[in-house]
Known about the structure:
Elements (H helix, E strand, L loop, with lengths): L6 H20 L2 H13 L13 H18 L4 H22 L3 H22 L5
Helix pairs in contact: 1-2, 1-4, 4-5
Keywords: Membrane, Transmembrane, Transmembrane helix
Protein name: Transmembrane protein (PGPGW)
Amino acid sequence: MSRHRQPWNWSLHLAALVLFGLALFTHGYLLLAASLILLGAGFFELGLDGPPDNRWFRFVRGGVEWEKNWSAAPWNRVKWSRLAIVVLVGGLSVWALWTQELAAVMLLAGFAVLAWVVRQNRENGIDP
Length: 128
């Protein structure tokens, strides 16, 4: 489990997720195979040098820390409800990409942007 929490491995997993979304949207089996290969490669010990200090790897380090904190948290009502929401949104995203419903994809992207704006506002002291 600790191998995949390295910044390079997490980057491979995010790239695999993007390729999986493209594979669903285009119904491309080669993209699906490429995404599965990247996902599998992300579980190996890569032995690469430390990642450079740039915006992408700061984002990845934040994601790795969030994942560590989330997995260490106890299973309570809040964690179960967040997991249910993620599974529901993930299933809806898979359906929207597979059926190529652009309106549903854009609606999900719009909700993601609105959630990000609400989070930024709360961090800046603005309570909606």
